[in-house]
Amino acid sequence: MTPAPTSQAQARLVGRLMAGAALLAAVTAFPLFAGNYPVKLLQEILIWGIFAMSLDLLMGYAGMVSFGHSAFFGVGGYVAALLLAKSPGLFTGLVVPAAASALVALVIGLFSTRVSGVYFIMLTLAFSQMFYAITFQASWLGAEDGIVGVPRPSPLGLDLGPPMRFHLYLVILVALAALALARVVRSPFGRVLRGIHDNEGRMEAVGYAVARYKLIAFVVAGTIAGLSGALYVQLVGSITPDAFLWTTSGEALLMVIIGGTGTLGGAVLGAAAFILLQSLVSSYTERWMLILGLTFILFVLFAPGGIVGALRGRVGLRA
Amino acid sequence: MPGLAVDGIHTYYADSHVLHGVSIDVAPGEAVALLGRNGAGKTTVIRSIIGFTPPRAGRVIWEDAAIEGWPPYRIARRGIALVPQGRRIFAPLSVRENLTLGARADGWSLERVFDLFPRLRERQAQSGGTLSGGEQQMLAIGRALLTNGRLLLLDEPSEGLAPIVVREIGRVVRGLKGQGLSILIVEQNYHLALAVADRVYVMSKGQIVYEGQPAGLEADEDTKRRYLGVA
Amino acid sequence: MTPPAPLLAIDGLSRRFGALAALNGVSLTLLPRERRAVIGPNGAGKTTLFNVITGQLVPSAGRVVFAGQSLVGLPPYAVARRGISRSFQRTNLFPRLTVIENLRLAAGADGRGSYNLLGRGAVRRGAQLARAAEAAEAVDLTARLGDVAGSLSYGEQRQLEVGVALATRPALVLLDEPTAGMSPEETERMTRMLEGLPREVTLLIIEHDMDVVASLADRVTVLHYGEVLTEGTFDEVKADPRVYDVYLGAA
To answer: Residue A295 and which of A62, B61, C28, C190 are 20 to 30 A apart at CA?
Structure first.
């Protein structure tokens, strides 16, 4: 129950909105003052950011640790790749891939949400690796080489060739997805999810059909993840079975944890940390994975709340 | 001074004050029963002695050492053996493995325990989880005996057991008395406790409300009705 | 004058675990507004009875009829929606949430509007909040609404435990050892709190503290080894020699 906002709380809110607007402006204007490579890094951060954010919805809010989130990333990516080659539009590039991911999430979810804990992890992992195996073998999907030469969509007839235009398109979609997730988390549904995370048994005992809520959360997360996969294939123009590989799920997990589980925004910070670290360190050494692993261990040991947790502690806000 | 002396302990569960100045003695070779209804605090006394819920005030003296606050494994090594409420045998392990897990030398041996509980010898390769309630209780007692302790703590051994099995357990515990063991048995089952005990305490709402000889309690209808019966 | 229809009618209820009959032909009838205590020594089957009523366990035989409809086979959330609520012997709250948030979650459990993914639920918020505040008042926790449940004292947590069960506005509440682990002062407070609950809420209470039973219960059912030994007022049960024997352990 939030009491009427005090002037201090209002000032904080205004401050946050202004900071958010400034960040959005900076991100949007980035291609104007940065080179191609940094822009590409930023765009990857945005895409992986919402991929990780969708996983955070599951992990941080519903308490469902999934190790098979790559399934939706891959489905979204592959469906977009296949359809965009035929007819590059928003429908084929975004809507159908998202719907396909939603459907896949529904099916996987029907099985997986019946179990929890280690079994949930194993089932989700298994399903995602099934997709990996299928795409790796399927010659009509390009087998291990995947699909290349995927054109960008032409929303409303606009050509997304010019970098700034594509960048705007990407920023808008990512912002919408992030806002949607933020809205879900604050909604009555989101509150129920948090209750399930805290005490599933009691939720059931007071009258919530817990399995139904978990399934819906799973489908929502899967749909956004599918969207991120579709955007990814539009960014790089190709997709391989590696999109389904367990490492993709694992990287998203790392991003969520490093950024701060259960914070949503942390997922983007985690994605940024991961991608920037990868880029920076791999220019010096091949062993960037080692550095990443050490970073992860340090976070878990000393900053279990992730980046967001550490920042909040510093600024003194309630965690 | 040998034996157990629990002296004015106050034990809490989080901030809930559950034991209010409880004092109990068990002399060497003596069998003492602690009676009372559910919720009286009997199991909390056991937990306070063995170190699972150390008392916040008061002392637990065992063979001249003040053991309150010690970690349970250290208390166990000092010669106190617990037969926990609900048996808590290791279900995936075999009967034999359950028994030998905490076994220490001198005195009780595997063979001697099997002599006491022939049914366990028959089932020694079976996994603990497949035993009946009564057999598990015997297993739990055997396991405790094999640690060769000098004080045996029995926490509600009759719980969940059919009357005929309860009588069997009573017979076994009576038989243990002459063997140099001190016994503290916590029970809801009045008849079992009296069949075994040299002295009895009665607890209610975290306090001792009666102390005396079994015959004395048997004759005291008021106390029995009020603290062991319904009211 | 026709007798009032029973709120809860349990008939010949049995529940087996392998060879063990945890419940064996239990029959029990609760009238609306009644306050019934279920007592019995360990292993009597009291918690199993609760688990069968609330749908956590399926009975091996027998019927459970609530307000004229059978509950058998319904999952726990469906039983709750029919109007039966339960508190647990081991405190079972949402530790990271505040008292009012705990109660609001329970108050919103009828499902309507909780599938709202994108809204703020302002319309139903008022009703939910009112119910939550009512429940808080009924369990004397109005002063602690903004405090995190995990920071409450043990006794206050047990109060909240009952509060969460009440917040769903049930017709029947099953209280499983509400005073478990409480000091005498806390027990006294809890007893007075329970006495003050609105009579429209029918109570079925498992208890070991006989003073609490004496204060609260209209009638007492005594269970022993899964069967109903006897039933009556507290004084009748207290005077019954069979009950005395059963408690002292002579079977």
So the answer is: A62
